[in-house]
Design a protein that fits this description.
Elements (H helix, E strand, L loop, with lengths): L3 H8 L6 E6 L3 H16 L3 E5 L10 H9 L4 E5 L14 E5 L11 E4 L9 H9 L10 H11 L9 H7 L1 H16 L5 H10 L3 H6 L3 H20 L5 E3 L2 E6 L6 H9 L6 E6 L7 E7 L5 H8 L7 E3 L6 E6 L1 H11 L3 H9 L3
Parallel strand pairs: 1-2, 1-3, 3-4, 4-5, 7-8
Antiparallel strand pairs: 6-7, 8-9, 9-11, 10-11
The protein binds manganese (II) ion.
């Protein structure tokens, strides 16, 4: 048992308690939350899912308020990173995560795989804990989607291979792309993606079954595909070892675009920015196949700089940020991109 503290936390929750599941809106967060919901229900515990909005994280005052309004007896935070603060005290909190911690919140049960090799995704941690508590055989496909979602394959975890075989890799991958479409679409409707995990009984059903919730997901997928098709028409521009991809879309596509180009431009770090996602802000993703920390790169470039915004969350190979146009301009100028190009991009907001 790799996560005994999480198991003990869940088992200590008395029957009839109310638990808020605060989770990230991607396939990993949602599938981790769903398997926890199932397990807690089996234990006679009521759960309420809470989803932060676009670019929000678990420790923002607005999110804290949203959780407080639900008046939970316990709180489980899934796949949302961690900071040195715990705004939820005195409510007992379990944090399940695999991101590089920005700090460890005091007085919480902190369950992180960050130092493991391989690093289990949040949904996989949830699964490994839940299967020690109740029978989750029929639900094993759910956390699988989180692993595919975050890592693209289950290669690092050979013990998952029989489950993939049972449900079909192609169906799993299609299901992930449907789930993630909900948060990529302009509506940021992750609630629908979470509901979809309860409507379907397998990845195949999620992809093929006729149901209003699943139809909504498919519409989001079509919307996102259109946004990507448009974004791929804009080629990269280069400064030194950095390639810049300029996106302008209400959909969350900058991470996809950065990954796509990073897989082609192997010698470069790829920064994909989006000036249409959050009004008045520039969001960006940084990806690279190079053996170096992109978080360290950002910290170095923006050293001694009064930055308006936030950056450097996530993983060494996959990070990003949300900056004011002015701070984004500073970032790009310091990387070496021409002033004029940066200004043109900032003025091109759709
Ligand atoms: Mn994750």
């Amino acid at each position: 048992m790799r996560f005994p503290e999480a198991k003990a936390f869940l088992e200590s929750i008395p029957k009839g308690s109310r638990v808020v599941l605060l989770m990230d809106g991607d396939a990993d967060g949602l599938s981790g939350g769903k398997i926890l919901e199932y397990t807690l229900r089996e234990l006679g515990v009521t759960t309420q899912p809470v989803f932060p909005g676009k670019t929000e994280y678990a420790y923002l005052p607005r999110v804290v308020e949203q959780v407080r309004a639900a008046a939970p007896d316990y709180l489980v935070i899934v796949d949302m990173g961690s900071t040195p603060e715990n705004p939820y005290a005195p409510t007992p909190v379990l944090v399940i995560d695999h991101h590089r911690p920005l700090g460890i919140p005091p007085d919480v049960v902190f369950c992180s795989s960050y130092k493991h090799r391989p690093v289990e995704t949040s949904s996989l941690i949830c699964y490994l804990v839940c299967e020690e508590i109740v029978v989750v055989e029929e639900q094993a496909w759910i956390p699988l989607l989180g692993v595919f979602g975050d890592l693209g394959s289950i290669e690092a975890f050979p013990y998952l291979a029989p489950i993939v075989k049972r449900y079909g890799k192609t169906h799993c991958k299609r299901a992930v792309s449907l789930l993630n479409a909900a948060r990529r679409a302009a509506a940021y409707d992750v609630k629908t993606a979470y509901e979809a995990l309860g409507v379907a009984n397998s990845p195949k059903e999620l992809v093929t079954k006729e149901h209003a919730v699943l139809a909504r997901l498919r519409a989001y997928k079509a919307e996102v595909k259109e946004a990507i098709d448009e974004a791929v028409r804009v080629g990269p521009i280069f400064s030194g070892e950095t390639a810049w991809i300029r996106c302008s879309s209400p959909c969350l596509i900058q991470g996809l675009m950065a990954s796509r180009w990073a897989n082609r431009l192997l010698r470069y770090r790829v920064l994909a920015s989006n000036n249409g996602y959050i009004p008045g802000k520039i969001v960006f993703s940084l990806r690279s196949q190079r053996d170096e920390s992109q978080i360290a790169f950002l910290n170095e470039v923006l050293r001694d700089c009064a930055v308006e915004g936030a950056y450097g969350f996530g993983h060494d190979a996959a990070t990003g940020g949300k900056l004011s146009p002015r701070s984004f301009a500073t970032l790009m100028q310091r990387i070496g991109f021409e002033d004029k190009l940066v200004r043109e991009y900032l003025e091109s907001v759709a």
